[in-house]
Please model this.
Amino acid sequence: MPFDNRRPDRVSEAIREEVATFLTDGVKDPRVRGLVTVTGVDVTRDLRHAKVFVSILGDDAGRRETLDGLEAMASHLRGHIGRALRLRSAPEIAFKYDQSVTYAARIETLLEKVRQEREGDGDPAGDAASGEATPDQAPDHVPETSPTQAPGRAS
Model:
């Protein structure tokens, strides 16, 4: 019987949806607080192990406490997923903190800062520093090139 390459992808997507629903409705652990977002799930080919990637808003202590709460409820969540998805054996659940959302927010902040510096800096010195020539800085002499000669190449 050939192996279905799409099944782990389908199961991981179903697990992601089920964990997200469970986190919004059924979490009783007081350590799990704040906004927890399931960003992705990786399932092994044999469907025995699943890494659930979560993004947690808050400070480092709050994140650590929330991850501890999630790890504590992993076995309960495993049974819930097994019943909900009607799997013969539910995968072992491991929660991993996903820093990609934090990293993307940091990059967006830096890009916005650069945009504001460029918009706020209207002097010609700023344009010269960026490599753009202003009309008063145009070169006096432009070398002529023949149509077959590439600019910058000597014949």
Notes: The CA atoms of residues 14 and 69 lie 22 Å apart.
